[in-house]
Specification:
The protein is α/β, with parallel strands linked by helices. It contains 53 helices and 40 strands. The strands form eleven sheets. It has a five-stranded mixed sheet. The radius of gyration is 32 Å and the shape is globular.
């Protein structure tokens, strides 16, 4: 028997095997899709090898995202995928510098630099991967290879978002509907994948050198490779396309085989055939139907909701036609005089809605008897305008209104319509028989029907059978509520655990509804939807989905038997209502329709820089219909012909139309200013300031997609907002123009425009974004251009001037002072002009009896590349558009608001909303950038202010994609609701906006239980007794688990960050558990008063309590800044001393336990010492009189000595630091038990102290007083605070210094000096500069491996976490940092893979020698 090696790669969609002979030549390789049946598929592949070569003895190795559990059960070694791939690259393509690998659901870029391997992997979203390409192909009715064939003949590329399969659909659908050609679409889809891979994965690390393309999609799709080569501008020499590139992981794992593990082919096959029972890790839910009877009653009830149908062949009289051209299907309905349905039609529109509609109309005319005629016609839905134009219909109506008409026909009292279609989801709330609010999924379609369809296909099922399977599933899997692709990985996990297809199908049905309710419509409790709910849309034909809706919502819903064609039915009813006697329909006759010819062509509008892509549909008879234009110019008309005021337009010109000095008038030379973020507020200041000083100001041009593409390589974080991503492009443009000096200041405090607000920060991104530019744009890093980004405060002219004199120290101080004064005045004048203009527009509205919309956002939302022409869309309906800052001076909210109102731009939002609520002719639409964390706070508050006074609140999510479809529906629904309201003359009552805070009184202190959410168990175990000793009934909650996070999702805006979900979830879970007397309980939370969302958790908690009807429960804020005070809760010396002792004990435990536990000779010995001392420390902190400092010193010494004595082995393990957002860093429940994971993987975890965070808060006060003009007295107190804390901590530091195993903590002043070269100490939101400082401190201590944990979309971490990794690598080449996003929907498989890769590099470095640990 000869010895051969076998590599098995179990991917997300396929299984691949490779067998090598003893000389490492490939003798057999094959791959197969596994449709979730991994074991059988693998057995089949091995059978093939057996048939070809007979019995062999093999050394096996398994790799791949799905291989770990299987490897353990088969007793076969497992190797990390990246290691396998790099092994085969080193053997087969040794020249590779960068490998790009796309798989079914993962995308990776692997960089090889001087023997160091670094991998980037898609984290939270599976945008540009194989499954994404399959999804897109199915839209074009082909498969991936078909796309590839089409793409060979492309002529033009369209911008398509690859960030999310759903968005891409929304981009492609209008293009299909508007008639774009398949070759162009196919090539654009590939281009989207390329953009996604480069911008989403490279994250600021350019792809240079020899590039190898690996993985299935890149192996089989030549055109996809071509797109990469084209975009990366590679020549032949630098392009590596290895043969068998899709088998690389399998070949690599075979190359990694060890001699000591061998198995015969037959034995391996047998092991697989006896199917391995794997244990459940994925949570399970209760079955949809407990019994057949239960299902029968359900089916009987649903079958009673029928529409009355008539026979068209015998009908006489007028008929009314409704056409609903949806995004993927076309529906038509014909009703008679009394609303009987005479004819209905439902068909997928195969990419051509017009053709499909005509097919249906021809069918109607074939059936239509002599004495019946179509009297009136109405179109609705996605393709409403195109169909109306082509067939000259009588009218078009926005789809929300059509749906309401249809639902009201079944149930006149309906108060909520839930419509789930192929990829869109709508929830229409009805109040007083009019559409009150409309919610659509703008950001994510994780709850839509096409997702179930795609899944059914991938498992080889038809949708109908897949749905049937779900009904009696015994253990439906719990898929949570997140991105569909992540569900894919959850499903994989479940499949590996042997979940049956029925369990999966039922789990999907649950998750569709959970997504729809909790993610899109954001209800915390399904009963909020209403009592009379009509469900419709094709997805609800699936009984499993309907049943899970009823189960989750706890209601009985009405599903009409025509659920799928409700839009068309509604349109037909509208046609019936609008018909007047004697009216002649304008619709084309059947002969005209039969002879209608149409063709579609594309053109680019040259009207302005938007370069809209126009789709021109030409019909016979010389008519044409143009779509894709944002304004009237595309139609060959004047822009904004009726001169409706548009203050977005005005503001843009007012801000940026200054004439700079020419080069010969500017003695000090040029200065470049990027047109981004805070410049939309402060440019008048900077322009005047520099011009006065004799600089030539060079402003980057207006944003467009090309500018965005310029900067795509240096964007460090894929989940930040589009306005921030654009900054990279603007700065790169200035560098490419050869501007030698670029000035982009970081503005910590904006002007204090609303003195009664809590504060006047800028948002963390606006404040610190220039730091990301400094650390990630290569030209700046190489020193090719002078880049200046001082941290400044505009709290007052004096503070600003003082900082500018420091910054421009080479210019005489009086010159700087004069220039600053001139700039300040100009900025004030610009602000004033906006206010005047606002009042002018209001006067114009009154004079002309017109309505206005305040399109409220941030200053930078006036950038047309960011707002995508929404203002023009609104003016095209004849409404005036105002900005939030043109009316904010007219509104004065009653304070305190429920939120902590601490950002200046947002204070304007609240003021504008407060003013809008007082006027009947004004409405407000809020613009919200995708990924804007702060809007989790503001959208709720603005909604409260408006809907509290009977106004309709509309919020539009915008990002890089300019799909105006959703915006159009929302705006039209809003207008139609306003029209109905005007007809009805409803009275509104204007309500105050303030919060009546429940105070925690002295009385309450006696018998109230105070609940505190868990953050760091090792510390909080000791803090509880400290509070109790001071006379508070203090209880730290112990329910930090998955369940409480799910409850958090119900009670908190889902855009809020993960820690807030954890905190609010724990609190609500405890209060709802029935354990506590709700009238004798209070809640406590810390507030730092900093500029990130954490200070607003208290508002989140109050809002959750209000939602649950517990608004009488007091919420106590623990803060040092006097933000809120309560007579019954005081931080006195006694409490602070005990808390400090407790925190220090906790820090000692953390250092000692984590350092000793991985090496203990006797398992459990470390935990035993820890438990013994917890008890002693609790007793010490609980004494009646103040604990004694000298006893405390002695205890610190004894604890350390006790841990020091534990016998340990002398093995070497890699040490891994854990840094990041404070809650995710310390709470095991939030970071998926990271410390235990690292220890089980053979590493030692190192976590910096909790006390350091307090010192960081103190130090920030010192910096602010020096640089940002805050009070000097605060800084004095802070210095004393640091001295006192360091003094008390001295006890621990001394003990640790004397020990043989432990290192003492660094001083806060050291951390400052570590961070300063990389980020400014002005980064003070969230963990700020402190996070960077901790990473450097760890590296100095020889801990080069670091996990940087952050909540998904954490704003400060974009800058000080992900944003500094590149610079850290440059300064400390041995550093090995991985950033992991935590989030309720993050896939643990993915987190695990990334952590394992970091560990494998760590193990490699450990072997290389002691100097690189």
């Amino acid at each position: 028997m000869n010895y051969k090696t076998l590599g098995i790669d179990i991917g997300s969609t396929t299984v691949k095997i490779a067998i090598l002979d003893e000389n490492e030549n490939l003798i057999f390789a094959d791959y197969k899709r596994h449709f979730a049946n991994i074991q059988e598929t693998l057995a089949d592949l091995l059978q093939e090898a057996f048939d070809q070569y007979g019995e062999m003895t093999l050394h096996p190795v398994i790799t791949g995202s799905g291989g770990l559990t299987l490897a353990n059960h088969l007793g076969v070694p497992f190797t990390q995928e990246v290691i396998a791939v790099s092994t085969s690259l080193q053997k087969l393509a040794p020249k590779t510098d960068v490998a790009i690998e796309l798989g079914g659901e993962d995308a990776k870029i692997i960089y090889f630099e001087n023997g160091n391997v670094e991998q980037r992997m898609n984290g939270i979203c599976a945008g540009g991967t194989g499954s994404f390409i399959d999804q897109m192909a199915s839209l074009l009715q082909t498969d991936a290879t078909g796309l590839n064939e089409y793409a060979k003949d492309y002529k033009a590329l369209y911008p398509i978002a690859a960030r999310c399969g759903v968005f891409a659909k929304t981009d492609i659908q209008p293009l299909i509907n508007d008639g774009a050609t398949k070759p162009d679409l196919s090539a654009s889809i590939f281009q989207a994948v390329v953009n996604q891979t480069i911008s989403g994965l490279a994250c600021g690390k350019p792809i240079r050198g020899h590039v190898a393309f690996l993985g299935g999609p890149l192996h089989f799709l030549s055109e996809l490779r071509e797109s990469f080569i084209r975009t990366l501008k590679l020549d032949e020499e630098h392009t590596i396309i290895p043969e068998n590139s899709h088998l690389f992981a399998a070949i690599g794992s075979a190359l990694n085989a060890k001699e000591d593990n061998s198995i015969s082919l037959t034995e391996m096959k047998d092991r697989l055939r006896n199917s391995i029972k794997l244990d459940f890790e994925v949570e399970r839910m209760e079955p949809l139907f407990a019994s057949q009877e239960e299902y029968d009653t359900f089916a009987k009830r649903q079958s009673s909701y029928k529409v009355k149908t008539g026979d068209l062949a015998t009908y006489k009289g007028n008929c009314y036609l409704g056409i609903d051209a949806g995004s993927t299907t076309t529906k038509t309905a014909l009703v008679g005089e009394d609303g009987t349905l005479l004819y209905s039609f439902y068909s997928s529109n195969n990419g051509n809605p017009l053709k499909t509609t005509i097919r249906s109309i021809k069918e109607i005319y074939e059936l239509l008897p002599e004495d019946a005629k179509i009297a009136y016609s109405c179109s609705t839905g996605y393709g409403e305008a195109l169909i109306k134009a082509a067939l000259i219909l009588d009218e078009g109506e926005v789809e929300t209104v059509s749906h309401y008409y249809a639902a009201a026909f079944f149930d006149p009292e309906v108060d909520c319509i839930l419509d789930i279609g192929g990829q869109d989801m709508k929830c229409i709330k009805i109040r007083n028989k009019t559409v009150d609010s409309v919610q659509l999924n703008e950001a994510c379609s994780s709850g839509c029907g096409s997702f179930i369809e795609t899944f059914a296909k991938s498992l080889n099922y038809s949708v109908q059978d897949f749905a049937k399977a779900a009904l009696f599933a015994e253990h439906p899997i719990d898929l949570g509520t997140r991105c569909t692709v992540f569900m894919n990985s959850k499903v994989k996990q479940a499949q590996k655990e042997g979940a049956s297809v029925s369990d999966i199908s039922a789990g999907l049905a649950y998750s569709v509804i959970k997504n729809a309710l909790f993610k899109v419509i954001k209800v915390s409790d399904a009963s909020e939807l209403g009592s009379q709910i009509v469900v419709q849309g094709g997805t609800f034909y699936n009984d499993a989905v309907l049943r899970s809706f009823e189960k989750i919502a706890g209601c009985e819903a009405i599903r009409p038997d025509i659920a799928g064609i409700m839009g068309a039915f509604g349109a037909a009813l509208i046609a019936r209502e609008h018909y007047t006697d004697g009216y002649q329909t304008s619709m084309l006759s059947i002969d005209a329709i039969n002879s209608l010819e149409f063709d579609t062509s594309m053109a680019k509008c040259k009207g302005c820089t938007n370069n809209c892509r126009l789709t021109i549909n030409r019909f016979s008879g010389g008519r044409q219909y143009i779509s894709g234009n944002r304004c009237e110019r595309g139609l060959g008309k004047q822009k904004n012909p009726n001169q409706v005021p548009n203050l977005f337009d005005y503001k843009l010109k007012r801000l940026f139309s200054y004439e700079p000095l020419t080069a010969d008038q500017a003695p000090r030379g040029p200065v470049g200013i990027p047109r981004v973020l805070n410049m939309y507020e402060n440019y008048p200041f900077w322009f005047t300031f520099f011009t006065k000083l004799g600089y030539q100001v060079i402003l980057s041009p207006a944003s467009n997609h090309n500018i965005y593409s310029l900067g795509i390589e240096s964007i460090p974080s894929e989940s930040e907002c589009y306005p921030a991503k654009l900054a990279h492009g603007h700065v790169t443009w200035l560098i490419k123009q050869g501007v030698p000096f670029i000035f982009y200041p970081a503005l910590f405090y904006e002007r204090n425009e609303t003195p009664d607000a809590n504060n006047h920060y800028n948002c963390p991104i606006v404040t610190s974004y220039s730091e990301n530019i400094k650390n990630n744009v290569e030209e700046i890093g190489r020193g090719e251009v002078k880049f200046s980004n001082p941290f400044l405060a505009f709290s007052s002219l004096e503070v600003a001037t003082e900082a500018l004199i420091k910054e421009f120290s080479d210019i005489p101080a009086e010159e700087v002072t004069a220039a600053a004064r001139a700039g300040w005045d100009e900025m004030a004048a610009a602000r004033d002009d906006m206010r005047k203009k606002g009042e002018e527009v209001l006067a114009w509205m009154e004079a002309n009896h017109k309505r206005g919309i305040v399109l409220a956002g941030r200053p930078y939302h006036v950038d047309p590349e960011i707002n995508h022409g929404i203002p023009e869309l609104i003016t095209s309906y004849g409404l005036a558009v105002l900005t939030e800052d043109s009316v904010s001076h007219l509104g004065h909210p009653d304070r305190p608001l429920i939120v902590s109102d601490q950002w200046m731009y947002h204070s304007r939002l609240y003021a504008a909303a407060t003013y809008v609520r007082t006027r009947d002719d004004l409405d407000l639409i809020q613009l919200n950038s995708f990924g804007c964390g702060l809007d989790a706070v503001t959208t709720d508050q603005v909604n409260d202010i408006l809907s509290g006074s009977g106004k309709i609140y509309t919020c539009l999510k915008i990002d890089e994609v300019n799909n105006l479809g959703a915006a159009r529906i929302r705006v039209r629904s809003l207008l139609s609701a306003i029209r109905v309201r005007e007809k009805k003359h409803q009275e509104r009552k204007i309500m105050p906006t303030n919060l009546n805070r429940v105070i925690f009184t002295e009385e309450m202190r006696k018998d109230y239980t105070i609940l505190c959410p868990q953050m760091s168990p090792i510390h909080f175990d000791l803090l509880e007794p400290a509070f109790r000793a001071c006379g508070y009934n203090f209880e730290v909650l112990d329910n930090d688990n998955r369940h409480s996070v799910d409850i958090g999702l119900k009670y908190v805006n889902n855009d809020a960050c993960y820690p807030s979900l954890c905190v609010v979830g724990q609190i609500m879970d405890a209060l709802l558990s029935g354990k506590y007397d709700l009238h004798k309980v209070a809640v406590v939370i810390t507030q730092t008063g900093g500029g990130c969302r954490a200070t607003n958790y208290i508002g989140f908690i109050r809002r959750a309590l209000e939602k649950a009807g517990m608004e009488y429960i007091p919420v106590v804020s623990i803060n040092m800044g006097g933000i809120e005070t309560n007579p019954g809760f005081k931080l006195d010396a006694n409490l602070l001393t005990r808390a400090a002792f407790g925190a220090i004990f906790g820090d000692i435990f953390m250092r000692c336990v984590y350092h000793m536990r991985p090496y203990e000779k006797e398992p459990g010995s470390v935990n035993a010492v820890h438990q013994k001392w917890i008890k002693k420390c609790q007793d010490f902190l609980s004494t009646k009189k103040l604990p004694n400092y000298f006893t405390f010193r002695k205890m610190c010494r004894e604890i350390v000595e006790d841990f020091d004595r534990i016998p340990i082995t002398d093995e070497k393990k890699p040490r891994v630091g854990i840094v990041g957002e404070i809650l995710v860093k310390f709470a095991p429940a939030a970071n998926n038990h990271l410390v235990e994971l690292l220890e089980s993987e053979g590493a030692e975890a190192v976590v910096p102290d909790l006390l350091d965070f307090m010192l960081y808060c103190f130090y920030n006060q010192i910096y602010k007083a020096e640089h940002l003009g805050t009070k000097k007295s605060t800084a004095k107190i802070a210095k004393m605070g640091i001295w006192a804390v360091e003094k008390i901590r001295g006890a621990a530091t001394d003990a640790l210094k004397k020990s043989k195993n432990f290192t003492p903590p660094s001083s806060i002043y050291d951390l400052v000096s570590y961070a300063e070269p990389i980020v400014s100490i002005g980064n003070q939101t969230g963990e700020g500069w402190f996070l960077t400082g901790e990473m450097v401190e760890l590296i100095h201590e020889g801990v080069n491996n670091i996990v940087c944990t952050q909540p998904f979309g954490c704003l400060p971490n974009h800058v000080v976490g992900k944003g500094v990794i590149k610079e850290l690598r440059r300064r400390y080449p041995q550093s090995n940092v991985v950033a992991i996003d935590y989030d309720p929907g993050a896939s643990e498989v993915n987190q695990l893979n990334r952590i394992k890769l970091m560990l494998s590099t760590a193990q490699k470095n450990l072997k290389k020698g002691p100097n690189i640990q």
